[in-house]
Amino acid sequence: MANPFSRVSNALGTLPRWVYVGLALAFAIVFPMLEYFGLMETLWLRLGTRTLVYVLLAVGLNLVLGETGLLHLGYVAFFAVGAYSTAILSSPRFDLQWNFWAILLVATGMAMLFGFVVGVPSLRLRGDYLAIVTLAFGEIMRMTLNNWEVLTNGPGGIPGIYPPNIFGWVVDQPVEFYYLLLVFVVIIVALVSNLKNSRIGRAWNALREDEIAAHHSGVRPTQAKMLAVIMSSGIAGLAGAIFAYYQQFINPTYFLFMQSVIVVCMVVLGGMGSIPGAILGAVALDATPEIIRQTFTTWLPRAVGSDFLPGVQAALQTEFDRYRMLIFGLVIVLMVIFRPEGLLPNKLWRREVREEDPRELEHTRQHLFDFEEGKQDLEV
Amino acid sequence: MTLEHIFGLTVSGLTVGMIYALIALGYTMVYGVLQLINFAHGEVFTIGGYLATSTLIWIGVDATTPLSLKIAYFGLALLLSIVFTALLGFLIERVAYRPLRQRSRIIALLSAIGVSIFLQNGIVIVFGPRPIIMPTAVVPTGFIEVFGARIRVLQIAIILVSLVLMAALTWIVKGTRMGKAMRATSQDREAAEMMGIETNLTISFTFVIGSALAAIGGFLVAMYYGSLQFNTGFLYGLKAFTAAVLGGIGNIPGAVVGSLVLGLAENWGVGLTLGILAWLFVAGLVLGLYFQFVRAPQSRIDHIAEEFRTPAYERAVRDVYRFAPVVAVKTLLAERTDALLYVSAQHAVRLTAANVILAGLAVLFFINGDAQFASKWQHVISFAVLMAILMFRPSGILGENIQEKV
Fold first, then answer.
1. Looking at the partner chain, which of A121, A136, A332 has a beta carbon nearest the beta carbon of B110?
2. Cβ separation of A329 and B96 shorter than 8 Å?
3. How does the average pLDDT of chain A come out, rounded?
4. pLDDT at A353 over 70
5. Mean pLDDT of chain B
6. Most CB contacts within 10 A, which of A25, B90, B132, B143?
7. Residue B46: predicted pLDDT
8. Which residues, in sequence order, are bridge partners of residue B228?
9. Residue B162 and residue B19: Cα distance in Å, rounded?
10. A14 pLDDT exceeds 50?
11. Which of A225, A40, A260 is nearest to A118 (CA)?
12. β-strand partners of A91
């Protein structure tokens, strides 16, 4: 492999896996302490918390998009279901204050139910129709949240969500939310990676590679896909519940189509079907823009003097978001064309890419043969 | 609810439907030749509308401009936007889709979504986030009265222009060499290539034609609603795709039929009271019941091979449909099931679900007979139509016309 990317990843791949997992976990645990010791502003802690929400979403979407190969474009709708379940059951709006665990259960369950409802009509269809149905569902959800004012208060959103009370521990500081999310991320990642190596995980991968072959080897396509969709919806619902608690206020603008696209982008960037990839994708896409913005608007001016590239600073402050999405679009196209296996491809995929396909060899041989015969313009 | 009200809603439904059709044609043609949902098509439509409108703003057309000059400017703006969007369509295919042609559909679709996001934010960066306003002087304001309903001249113009364009497209597809190449490519690309058809050129041509139609659609929308926003194309694209699926993807007349049905459904849906809509559901229910109890069992029975045709077997098939929930579920859950019965049972369950939903909606709508959908639910209606059509007839009204690759 001449590709420098793969050379690096191969070299890194020689270290045992627990080293990386341990390092990542250690970093994640130490990260908020930087704020405690005054090495970092609270802004970064908030960013870290948001990133962890995205990590949950990316890991959940990876089940569908990466493992099973279904393009799901309405993922944020399930996130919204979780968030709104929480907001309705634990806020002054209907004067309810349910227990944290009960709400978690309801939010996850509701999201799973919606996943089932969307899955029933769409999973029998061709793969690309699923993308459109999920997209349409996402839009229906957003419009319903906007229009059903009796329940959701429409565009005004639901404010004043009570902080969760976990066996007497009232979670209301950013640091506490960070660790709460981290615990859930660890649990979900452990769960999903075990699932990935189980019978059902292999069934998903088989479906992704070749649905007909998988079907004839005894995998029930609709059931297996349904399971993937339901589980990933549940993860989104869970993420939504914690997100609502953390934000204390939600309205429909948190659940735009673009959010779904950002999560898709994370999974594609990290490597479809790779859990470390999904995590890396989430961290990279959520943190990098903020780091770039801070570098140019705060750190460099502080170090070099405030008149450092004022044009760039102004542009970053006002139009940064648009360029961010522009770049996200570009990232998807470029990744898909030039490195479809993502930044951190999973082992199976890497092996597949590296493996010499006998048909490929045959093709080359045939091509050389034609070349000698003077028929080089014939594509075999 | 008066006749002229219904007539007015019908005309505006047809107008919107025609605009959907102009976009849907691009989707359906591209899907025909590439089996790809050209997600960026909605953005091409927006860019077409933006370019034409901003050209008119830039020229500075106002009420004092003489009519002949107005028409000339009009043509210029339209020509400019068509040329540019055609080029854009060509480039999109070349850059983002062609390298992925051998890969799976999902990968190509992802690329299409990336292009769509890129273009949408490109529009914001170039033209700004605020909507672009069509100069009012350009838009014909007259109206005529038919059956007491006011029909805007613009609506008639939009319908006529769309009809002319569709006739032209039909001529291109049916009557020219390139059209023949397009049809051949959509039937079987490899075979077409072997017959000496330049499939790459043909695919590029398909994108060019589709983009040009979308640009005209964008211009018409800007005139009809008076403004365009950077994300207008997202919703229109989604609805046009819905229309293409509704009519049968890959099927050119289907795209037009689907678009008209969708346009009418949207306008009737929010314009009529629930009591009138309930009658539509009743009609649907009658059709559904006819299918469940007469048509479907008969067509299944016709499929039984001669040597297996016994009265008992026929009755079993009929029972699956007649007592759908109980017998069908029992059949589906049985340890060993006859294949025909199994398929019939699945079908029966789906038909029953549809009939129950229709009956429920009819009752619900009759109860609230005087109420009306607020227009904010309009988009929800069309997406619900999409989900319903995919659930019960994914091949669309006129049947799909694509090459199934295994």
1. A332
2. no
3. 80
4. no
5. 85
6. B132
7. 94
8. B132
9. 7
10. yes
11. A225
12. A96
